[in-house]
Structures are given as structure tokens and as C-alpha cells.
Amino acid sequence: MKKKSNAAPPAAPGLFGELPAAAPAPAQKSGLLSFSYSKLSLYEECPLKYKFKYLDKIKEEPKFYFAFGSAIHSALEFLYSVKAPPFPSIEEVCEAFRREWTAKSYLEKGYRTQQKSDDDYQKGLLMLRAYYEHNRARLAPPFLVEYSTDVEADGLLVRIIADKIEYLGEGRLLITDYKTGKDVKRQPSQLYMYQKIAELDPRLKEKIAEQYGQKVSSVRIGRMLYYHVPTNKEYSFERADDKEIGSFWERVLGVAESIRGLKFDPTPGEMQCKWCDYKALCPHFFGGQPHPDPAAAQAAAGEKIETLVDRYGRLKERMDELQAQLSEVAESIGRAAKDGGEYSGAEYSLKVKKNPKWEFKDREAVISVLNQFDLYQRALSLTLTGITGVLDSADIPDDARKKLLEQAVKKTAVDIKIVKKVY
């Protein structure tokens, strides 16, 4: 029997040509909504971004920090994928890192230059050597490494991928999640997801029986931790109680319900929008107008000139708005920096230099003064730099200096050089 089509009717014409059809139903498996912690966090960051990534299947640009983290994880997986000592040498671990690193070009990894990729490669080698030395005395074969499982729970099919699981006996587990980004205070939400799903996962009981010969009636998380590889710091969490897990799970179910209800309104904000790959599709960046069809946006080269005119106008308005904001912030930095200097934020550092500059109110009056005292040629055809040079000269007549100063306004030029921090 022929399946009934669930396709939406054709969309009506809109500002960008045809408007996109209504969002398709979320991808499901066995009648369950496929879910994970990364999907939870992305939806909470921006529901529309979730839609673009997971429903419309629009690929994001590769991110170098994901590539770096993935390569470190791969090397650590290689280190711990032994059933019994001896463990791989540090040279072998570094070789595993090299193989993963060189499998893609620097552009495929998300770097802008080969040099930056090479720098991070060297940083990764140093990081792994420091990790190996720090943990050499306590290396022990774990229960599981990079353990991936899908578990049904409350209408969801939830996937977790645990970096390392250690068996503590009597059905108790220690789960470790490796982090390679900034050393920041992290909420245990991701670990709550691990706890909830691991304790529901029937496969773990089977694997305990296979590996340790113990038949356990249930699996229980004993402890969980984030391990920050760059600093070798451990952030440990005891098993969350029923109240904490219950509150977290209500949050999960609320997000799942919104996804099922096709609620994908954008939630714009400075940080989540700053590096978003979907700006060109987002209504927030088109004055609240409906976003273009993703396929049409990616084939912008074939757009009609009328559409391009409107897109150009909107982008120009947005650019002017951002330029105004940039100028305002630069003025605020100039005031706050006083005499200049170096300053640092969480993500960027900058240098501020201040130099005096002159501005002249009346061009014709300035020309008259220069001609009166035969200084026009010294002003290099009346450039601002030339006039300033005349004004600052020690040998011009006092009357000429006085009359030029009457037309001048002294201000401060603020030169800002900013650099993004690399971690």
C-alpha cells in the first residue's frame, strides 16, 4: 500500500521568493524523539539554531576547537584501550594524536592558516605528555572507553557517549568526561544526563557480568568528574540525588515537548549570535522578516537582481548599525583607558594608544591664514597632516600660530589594536 505523504503544501511567495515550508517533524527513531545533551544545550541556546542544524541538516563551518578536542580524545582513547598493562608509551600516544591530526587539512579542521594548525598540534603534544606524566603512576585499564549507548526514557531515545567509565564494585561506576577548552566553572548538567541514562542502561549490567563476573541487580553512579586536560585539574561531583535528577529531567522533557511542538523561535543574544554560522538564514538579522529557504540561501549566486538589491540594503543597514556600535564602544574604551595601555577581557586583549590631533573648523579661514603668512606650500597642499605640521613648527610667526589655533580644535586620537586570546 502506498504511504500517505506528510509533505506540507507549497509555500506562498514572500520577501525572499518562496517562504520555507513549515518545519518538518523532528527526526525520530522507533517512534521516539532522538535526543542527547548536545541537542538539549543547543536548543536552550537558540531553538532556531537547533532547527537549522538537526532538522534542516545545514552544516556548520568546521570549528578548530572541536578538531583539537577530538584529536586529544582520540589519543586518550588509544591510551586506555588496553585490557591489561603494559600501556602504550607516550611516544605511541603522540603518534595516535598525529594520525588523527593529519587525517584532515588545516582548512577541514577549521583553521585559517597552516601555522595556527601547526601551533595547536605542538600544544596538543605538550598537553598529552603532561597528562601522561601526571597520571603515569595511576594508569589502570578502565571498564569502558568512549562508551556510546542509546536508551529509551519517557518517549525519548537518548544517546550518551562517556569518555571513560571505571568500575568501583557492587554495580557502582565512576564516569569521567574530558574537557580541552577553557578552564571555567562548569555546571554538572552533562553529568546528570550521564547518570540518568547510565542507571537506566541494561547493557551496562551485562558488560559488568562479562568483564568482572558479577551479576548486579542495578547500576549506580558512585562519582562523576570533569577532567580538564590542559591543566590536569579534576572537578568531582558526587551522585546527584533524586531531586536534582528530577529537576534536570523536567528540563529535558520541557525542551523535548517544545521540539515536538515545532517551537523554533530564535533567541538572539550577543554571545550566541556572535559566531553563529546561520546568521544569513536568521530573521533576527533581516529586520524580523521571514528567513530565506535554506537551499535558496546557499545558492545565492542564482538570485534575481531585485532580491540581491534588498539583501544588500539590509546588510548595509546592519553594517552601519554595527559600525555605530563599534564607534560608541571605541569612544568608551578611549575614555576609560585614560592614558592608554594594555587591557584584557575574558576573550580578547587590546592595546590602546592615544595621540593628540587637530581638527579645523573653517577650511577657507585656514587657507586665508596660510596665504597671509606665506605658509601654504609648507602645509603640503592643505592636507590635515601638513597643517598640523605647520602648527607644531617652532619657527612660524606667533600671529600665524594664534590665528590657526583660533580655527583649530584639539582632540585625542585613540588607536585600538585587539587580539583574540588563544587557549
Distance between the termini: 58 Å
Tell me the major beta sheet.
7 strands, mixed
Beta-strand percentage range: 15-25%
* Shape estimate: elongated
* Percent in helix: 40-55%
Based on helices, strands and strand pairing, what is the structural class? alpha+beta
Mean pLDDT: 83
Instruction: State Rg.
Output: 31 Å
Task: Give a verbal description of the structure.
This protein has 423 residues and is α+β, with helices and mostly antiparallel strands. Among the domains are: 64-138, no CATH class; 144-257, no CATH class; 342-420, no CATH class. 44% of the residues lie in helices and 21% in strands. It has helices at residues 37-45, 47-55, 64-80, 90-102, 106-109, 114-135, 189-200, 202-212, 242-260, 270-274, 294-298, 305-337, 363-372, 384-392, 398-407; strands spanning 13-14, 17-18, 28-29, 32-36, 144-153, 156-169, 172-179, 220-228, 233-238, 341-344, 348-360, 408-420. Strands 3, 4, 5, 6, 7, 8 and 9 form a seven-stranded mixed sheet that branches. The protein has a three-stranded antiparallel sheet with strand order 10-11-12. Strand 6 and strand 7 form a beta hairpin. Helix 1 packs across helix 2 (47-55) and helix 7 (189-200) packs across helix 9. The chain is elongated, with a radius of gyration of 31 Å.
